[in-house]
Design brief:
This protein is mainly β. It contains no helices and 15 strands.
């Protein structure tokens, strides 16, 4: 169908700007009051500044000597920011997934890979209402051995594994959560039919 033309033009005022200088590409996230960003020129630090202006402050720092926070887009919701931390700007197989509270900067380690067990690109996640759900691929002897889907309540730290499947049959490429319902996409490999299935999980009823 044809797209209807706009009926009005909204003219908005500039609230503020952040001078980044040269090579200022950023990964950013926002909550109701602040913008958070990681500069590619300085990937080991995350900064925060209120929308109405002020001095940017450093709020999160890599845990590695020459680490980078810039390999995955940070996700911010319900007072928690989720980000990946790697030992250097080229590391994909050694990493830490961190959840940092934006009120008091307490922190939970969601997942770590220190033995090349999986690539950071094999970690998929979603968060809603302070509950994080993720899928992760596990390597053994260079082959995908297992896929897992897990969840964690970031506010109290309780975590559970929803299911575990053999990794040579399918790829669990996407997970989403809304309230307590978890949706996961199963992509079957060519050797098993190459079909896609959508699964719904309710952790409260264990179904």
């Amino acid at each position: 169908p044809a797209i209807e033309p706009a009926t009005e033009t909204l003219r908005v005022n500039l609230i503020n700007s952040i001078p980044l200088g040269k090579e200022g590409e950023v990964l950013s996230a926002m909550d109701d009051h602040n913008i958070y960003w990681i500069r590619f020129k300085d990937p080991g630090n995350m900064f925060r500044m209120p929308f109405n202006g002020g001095t940017p402050i450093k709020v999160i720092t890599t845990k590695y000597d020459q680490g980078s926070l810039g390999f995955m887009f940070p996700s911010l919701t319900d007072h928690w920011i989720i980000l990946g931390d790697t030992p250097n700007a080229r590391s994909l197989n050694d990493w830490t997934i961190r959840a940092v509270n934006t009120d008091n900067f307490s922190e939970k380690i969601i997942l770590q890979s220190t033995d090349h067990s999986a690539s950071l690109f094999d970690f998929n996640f979603d968060v809603d209402g302070g509950v994080l759900v993720w899928s992760n691929r596990v390597l053994q002897s260079g082959k995908f051995a297992e896929d897992t889907v897990s969840r964690m309540n970031l506010n109290d730290g309780t975590a559970s594994e929803l299911f575990r499947a053999e990794g040579d049959q399918a790829v669990w490429a996407m997970v989403k959560i809304s309230k307590d319902i978890v949706v996961a996409e199963q992509d079957l490999l060519n050797s098993t039919g190459a079909n896609n299935n959508i699964y719904y999980f309710d952790p409260n009823t264990k179904q």
